[in-house]
Amino acid sequence: MKSLYFFVFSLLTTLLLFNANALFDFNTRITISLVMSFFNFITLNSVMQKYAMIPNISIFTKIINYLILIYYVIITYLHFFSTSEVRTILRFLNKNIEFHAVEKSYMENCNTFENVSDKIDWFVCAHLWGWFAKGMIIRNFFLLNINSAIFELLELRFQHILPNFYECWWDHIFLDVLSCNLIGIASSMVFMKYFNIPLYDWKIPDKIKPNKKNIIFPTVDKLCRKVFTNSSTLLLLIFLSFIINIIDLNVFFLKAELKLNHVNLIVIARTFAIGFISGKACKEFHCFLKDG
């Protein structure tokens, strides 16, 4: 338990120093961030050795645990710098790195379907493989398709910030939700069925028998219970959808904030890292719900 207390103390100290960033110059912040990253590494490693590195753990799980540790330390270090300073650090590490201030918009020539070919580019493959990977992580056809539609709505909400969220109406519906996303999701389901990979039933079992005497709309209640089982399951699906879309938006916003190209090695490596970490998190969370 001491290791957990030390980790919390180290994290709170890091956040406190970060909020006092204006008091330090760039060189001082480099020193502070290195020291705090080291302490966070030591404390988190101690916590993971005690709670995550259980006996007979697989090599793959060990690798992901260390990936979580390394990623956390990197985020802790970069937390002390502004986006322009992070770009300076990236340029120092890679002198050939290119930054792109303007992203491509997909909202030109929306009046005819003859322009569909203009919309097909690298992002089509990214949609297919991205939703295939999400299918392997989330493993629930219903939840995946719900979030496929939710993300398109989020694109509409944030398109004034990110130009590549500007898309034609038929691009959102036919190319994304009903084509690329659905094909990626369906392919992951077929793949998992072929290799006998278990799906996740994101439900919380009813421990208390519901009282149906005072229900105003019994037909609606019956339909809702067929889909969501109970109110706890509905809240669980809302929570999972919130986390899924926060992670997805974070990829696009961080890429735009740092002005990195979508094929940049840093963007690709981080996306893969988040994917593996999310896969482990979903597996352990589902086991917790199932066994708890």
Describe this structure as you would to a colleague.
This protein is an all-alpha fold and 292 residues long. The chain has two domains: 2-81; 113-291, no CATH class. It contains eleven helices and no strands. It has helices at residues 2-19, 26-51, 59-78, 83-93, 116-119, 122-138, 141-158, 169-194, 218-228, 231-257, 265-291. Helix 6 (122-138) runs parallel beside helix 11. The chain is globular and about 65 Å long. The two termini are 22 Å apart.
In short:
With 292 residues, the protein is mostly helical. It has eleven helices and no strands. α6 crosses α7 (141-158), α6 packs across α8 (169-194) and α7 packs across α10 (231-257).
What string, H for helix and E for strand, traces the elements in order?
HHHHHHHHHHH
Major β-sheet, in short? Answer: none
Oligomer: single chain
Mean pLDDT: 87
Task: Give the tally of β-strands.
Answer: 0
Give the N-to-C terminal Cα separation. 22 Å
Give the CA-based shape.
globular
- Which stretches are poorly predicted, pLDDT < 50 over at least 5 residues? none
What labels describe this entry?
single chain, 292 residues, mainly alpha, 2 domains, 70% helix, 0% strand
Chart the SSEs and their pairings.
Layout (H helix, E strand, L loop, with lengths): L1 H18 L6 H26 L7 H20 L4 H11 L22 H4 L2 H17 L2 H18 L10 H26 L23 H11 L2 H27 L7 H27 L1
